[in-house]
């Protein structure tokens, strides 16, 4: 049996590595293939795109990593302001594909349950391909959920495919809106919401 991974809160010095892990793990997702069809351009540009959100999370959320930096979770505390200089940074990162990223942003914004009050948003959960299948992603999610449950705070995310949707379903997430309507053939993004789990009372097992 594999021992549980050691998890720490990332610092800004980890930002480039976190963005690289997300870009590497997400490279083959259907949505990313649509965003930047050319594989070499995708590999060259995705890190810069994910770095925009990662940098924002260090100011407006939390970033957790396994100590070997093979797995990362990027959380934003909602509501949050737009990243500073977002349009300029997006255009610089995405070049001729910027309009597709803007389309994605709009669809994600429309699906996001802004009316449900403060919550945490899991922007990215990513595991390096060589480290997948070892429970690192689940460990990162459970680590953050423990704090959310103590605070009685809900969470939101978009599952990137059917496989991750099942993982999040096991973690307590439920579909909360139709899949994103984006113009590509492949697996959709599924908006999902999680209510905090009930905390057991320390006196629950005592006889009344």
From TrEMBL:
<dbReference type="Pfam" id="PF13508">
    <property type="entry name" value="Acetyltransf_7"/>
</dbReference>
<protein>
    <submittedName>
        <fullName>N-acetyltransferase</fullName>
    </submittedName>
</protein>
<feature type="domain" description="N-acetyltransferase">
    <location>
        <begin position="56"/>
        <end position="197"/>
    </location>
</feature>
<dbReference type="InterPro" id="IPR016181">
    <property type="entry name" value="Acyl_CoA_acyltransferase"/>
</dbReference>
<dbReference type="GO" id="GO:0016747">
    <property type="term" value="F:acyltransferase activity, transferring groups other than amino-acyl groups"/>
</dbReference>
<dbReference type="InterPro" id="IPR052523">
    <property type="entry name" value="Trichothecene_AcTrans"/>
</dbReference>
<dbReference type="InterPro" id="IPR000182">
    <property type="entry name" value="GNAT_dom"/>
</dbReference>
